[in-house]
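Work Package 4 report. The design task specified in the project plan requires that, given a folded chain encoded as structure tokens, an amino acid be chosen for each position. We show below one input record used in the internal validation round.
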């Protein structure tokens, strides 16, 4: 380490975990190092999704704001640090696309200015959601019983690990292990 800076490869999970932990404590130098290390990759993720540089830059900025504010919530047992940051960026890119697929407001002088806008998801939103749900269900079906059950209860029903361990009558360490391994298999399946 030189002058408070860490030289890391952008894909070194151990160093990224350390930087996130330091960001959670409010260390601005670690945040700068994290930004320099992964901003190129996160920008590429945003640009691939959005295909517009101005939107990708906006999403990148918002991603790092979220990373800074949520670094303390990062859980090494659930995903690799780069996966966690990519998911934040992807989700913000999806939000950006949804915002820009909304119909623009008509001019005040337009005869349609007072017509109510349909707030329901459009066909594109429904198609994307259906595809994402189908992929997730397909990947969930590949998990072993305890892994699948643990993930579904913990994430879709919002139950804490300790409550889940009591509900499943299993040691907390086993439940955490099932979830960690299941999440790794899900990530591999969804990325493949």
């Amino acid at each position: 380490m030189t002058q408070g800076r860490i030289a890391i490869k952008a894909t070194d999970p151990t160093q990224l975990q350390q930087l996130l932990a330091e960001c959670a404590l409010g260390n601005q130098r670690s945040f700068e190092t994290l930004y320099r290390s992964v901003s190129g990759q996160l920008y590429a993720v945003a640009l691939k999704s959005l295909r517009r540089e101005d939107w990708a830059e906006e999403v990148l900025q918002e991603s790092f704001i979220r990373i800074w504010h949520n670094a303390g919530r990062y859980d090494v047992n659930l995903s690799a640090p780069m996966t966690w940051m990519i998911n934040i960026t992807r989700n913000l890119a999806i939000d950006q696309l949804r915002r820009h697929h909304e119909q623009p407001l008509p001019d005040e002088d337009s005869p349609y200015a007072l017509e109510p806008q349909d707030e329901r998801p459009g066909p594109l939103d429904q198609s994307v959601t259906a595809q994402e749900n189908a992929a997730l269900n397909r990947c969930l079906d590949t998990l072993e019983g305890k892994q699948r059950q643990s993930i579904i209860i913990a994430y879709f029903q919002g139950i804490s690990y300790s409550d889940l361990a009591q509900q499943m009558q299993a040691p907390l360490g086993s439940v955490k292990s099932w979830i960690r391994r299941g999440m790794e298999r899900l990530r591999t399946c969804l990325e493949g």
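Confidence is low (pLDDT under 50) at residues 1-9, 102-118. Validation will be extended to a larger panel in the next phase.
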